[in-house]
From TrEMBL:
Name of the protein: PCI domain-containing protein
GO cellular component, one term: transcription export complex 2
Annotated PCI domain residues: 211-397
InterPro entries, A to Z: Csn12-like, PCI_dom, WH-like_DNA-bd_sf
GO biological-process terms attached to the record: poly(A)+ mRNA export from nucleus; post-transcriptional tethering of RNA polymerase II gene DNA at nuclear periphery; transcription elongation by RNA polymerase II
GO MF terms, alphabetically ordered: double-stranded DNA binding; RNA binding
């Protein structure tokens, strides 16, 4: 009992000292409930709480503003250690609300680091609570509640003064919640606030937060098929990402590669191998060879992965570029045989090429494909319907995308 009393008492003392002396770096780790299963100190505190049932009386030595924060925080630590994640989330949310109430009263930004920890913890605890609720057959709703709390935090930061630099960090935590819940449309209002509000200067924000922000907004542009904007944002994230964080670079490239492919820019084999992005190997090979069968096979093989990351439809639309490459190969072969007639490609030749690739198509389908290639400016020429021939331009019959989207 004495040892348990001492452990809990030490935590209360350390928390109080850091709180009243406004030492954010000392306070922050004490709020990290989810690390109580790995942090030796928090682990000993959690065990002390389990053994010392009357720990609440230790809080009588602190005043009201701190007692509310500490009492709920300690319950969260105790519940998390016991594997009761829903109880841990509920208690932590109460502690977080009490902390936010105090945070609003401070003019300086000393508590930003502890607030970052709270923003992270409430998201992680909400995810675990929702898992527990789901396993019990109940409606998982805590992550949505965490998003509502973080919007209140954002509101507290969206004002003139030194605390505003924390707004982007909280925004990134909100992005993670919205992407997890599949409610990415909720990102729009907060993006509008960050990018149009006069109180914010993007260059003022910490680089780490800017990289994360550009990664998520880049992903949003991918979903909206705004490939030029997506490329700009994801390239910013990639170029400013810590090169030692290979996992983060890989996450960025998972979206940047499909964007680049859509703009006609192929990654190197070295890049794909270095960051273990093998799901794109056959996609790139298909684009190089003009092999529609290979592209469809790659999409089928990695369908779940591409669907989960939200890039399947982007990759599926690469078929037009593959058809362009196939037509270019046919054109080049004809030019070797008879340069004077190289620009006249019979539809039956294209049908034979596709059937050789085991693609079951008829001449009418091929006509449609040719018409789309011409319309999208992937092929210059016209279609002679009666003779079933595509007459290609003698000058630059297959325009390069040069970093522009198809049809732009």
């Amino acid at each position: 009992m004495g040892d348990a009393h001492r452990r809990v008492g030490d935590f209360v003392r350390l928390f109080s000292d850091a709180f009243y002396s406004q030492e954010g770096s000392s306070l922050s780790p004490l709020l990290s409930v989810s690390s109580s299963s790995t942090s030796p100190f928090l682990l000993s505190v959690a065990d002390g709480l389990a053994a010392f049932q009357d720990w609440g009386r230790l809080l009588k030595q602190v005043d009201g503003q701190l007692e509310d924060i500490l009492s709920h925080l300690l319950r969260a630590v105790q519940s998390f250690r016991a594997g009761r994640f829903m109880d841990a989330y509920i208690a932590f949310e109460k502690s977080a609300n009490a902390f936010l109430q105090e945070f609003r009263n401070w003019e300086s930004a000393w508590a930003l680091q502890p607030l970052y920890t709270i923003a992270y913890e409430i998201r992680v605890l909400a995810e675990k609570a929702d898992w527990e609720l789901g396993s019990l057959g109940k409606n998982p709703e805590k992550l949505k509640g965490a998003g509502s709390y973080l919007m209140k935090v954002f509101g507290a930061l969206a004002s003139k003064g030194p605390k505003r630099v924390g707004a982007l960090h909280v925004t990134c935590q909100l992005f993670k919640i919205y992407f997890k819940l599949g409610t990415v449309h909720l990102c729009r209002s907060i993006i509008r606030s960050i990018e149009t509000a006069r109180i914010f200067d993007f260059e003022e924000f910490p680089l780490r937060d800017k990289v994360t922000y550009m990664y998520y907004t880049g992903r949003l542009e991918v979903y909206n098929e705004n490939f030029l904007a997506a490329e700009q944002k994801l390239m910013y994230a990639l170029s400013h990402c810590n090169f030692r964080r290979e996992a983060n670079i890989r996450m960025i490239l998972k979206y940047l590669i499909p964007v680049k492919l859509s703009l006609g820019i192929l990654p190197t084999e070295f890049l794909i191998e270095k960051y273990n992005l093998v799901e794109y190997t056959r996609v790139v090979q298909a684009l190089k060879r003009g092999d529609i069968r290979l592209l469809r096979g790659a999409l089928l093989e990695h369908e779940n992965r591409f669907l989960k990351s939200g890039v399947y439809l982007v990759l599926e639309k690469l078929e037009l570029q593959v058809y362009q490459r196939l037509m270019k190969k046919i054109y080049m072969l004809q030019r070797l045989k008879d340069p004077s007639k190289a620009h006249q490609v019979k539809m039956e030749v294209v049908v034979k090429a596709l059937k050789w690739l085991e693609m079951d198509v008829d001449i009418d389908e091929v006509e449609c494909i040719m018409a789309i290639l011409i319309y999208k400016n992937l092929m210059k020429g016209y279609f002679a319907h009666k003779s079933k021939v595509v007459v290609l331009s003698k000058q630059d019959p297959f325009p390069k995308l040069n970093g522009k989207p198809v049809g732009a």
